[in-house]
Amino acid sequence: MVPPMAHTADFQARLGEATARLNEREPAFAAVIAQAGPCALSPAWDRPPYESLVRAITYQQIHGRAAAAILGRLLALYDPSPFPAPQDILATDEDALRAVGLSRNKIAAIRDVALKTTQGVVPGRAEAETLDDDEIVRRLVTIRGVGRWTVEMLLIFTLGRLDVFPLDDLGVKAGYAALFGLPAMPTRRALHSAAEAWRPHRSVAAWYLWRAAEGGGAPAVLAAGRASPI
Known about the structure:
Blueprint: H1 4-25, H2 29-36, H3 49-59, H4 64-76, H5 86-91, H6 94-99, H7 104-118, H8 125-130, H9 133-140, H10 148-157, H11 170-179, H12 188-196, H13 202-215, H14 220-223
């Protein structure tokens, strides 16, 4: 696997190139690029997909502060390990997991992540680097509680993939409406069609659409770029 620092240097250069190309291809991006500045995507290069998925499930459908507290209590169960191994999760009694604040559905989902990691369905970081986006989506959506949007966030914010476009993300939709002055959210088909012109830099386009959503007054939960610390 390429060391994180090497990843970072190459990634910053690619972000700059992607931003320049978007500016050339889609004049509507010019204003938000000028306002937001350089794309600040910063993937967690040292984080395995397993950890990202556990974190994402913990954060689903609750306020960020509450989720952070629950995650902190979960990690405390396994101190001094910085993050529990899949086998540790599977060996932990459900009552102990409930006591940290996880719902039964989230416990079932996190345990499924752990199980499928031990089975090889969830790839390790090194293997994930060798897989294309579609293969990662195909594998991970088989996990309980993990949908396509969650995998897309993992692709962008953990693996640093630069041509991922989350069509069902509300912040992306709100940003597109704001950027192009639409009276309503775009349809999925219209958004897909527009994004085709932004290949192979659609992750960067999504980042600027999140920024446009913020500028257009969209709620922070829609515009933040991700709803969990993937």
